[in-house]
Amino acid sequence: LKVIITNRAKGSLTSAILGADAEFDNWASIALEHRWNLQPDLLKVSHHGSRFGTYADVLVAIRPKFAVVSVGENPYEHPEEWVLALLDEATSGQVFRTDENGTCLFESDGVEWRYRD
Question: What is the rounded distance in angstroms from the CA atom of residue 101 to the CA atom of residue 8?
């Protein structure tokens, strides 16, 4: 799901992609079909940061500025460390996790996203 927020006065927009439970085949299809229309400023990471929902090629294609991993204590050890490393590289360190940051609240004026703590 892609959410677009516009600021008509400034003629700009920002967007977020909410990854839900998208897996590799879903992301591959989405990236192939919509590659040039994806580029979200904010990515809600799929599958709680598991190996099934995050891929280097997709991150290169969509180039998010921020990533949010919704995760709590779990027996699967999510998020996976190598996924966090991919996200960290793709977003220049702008990765937020609900298990560490609590509720991750972002706001946008249609120009940019801001993290609110």
Answer: 32
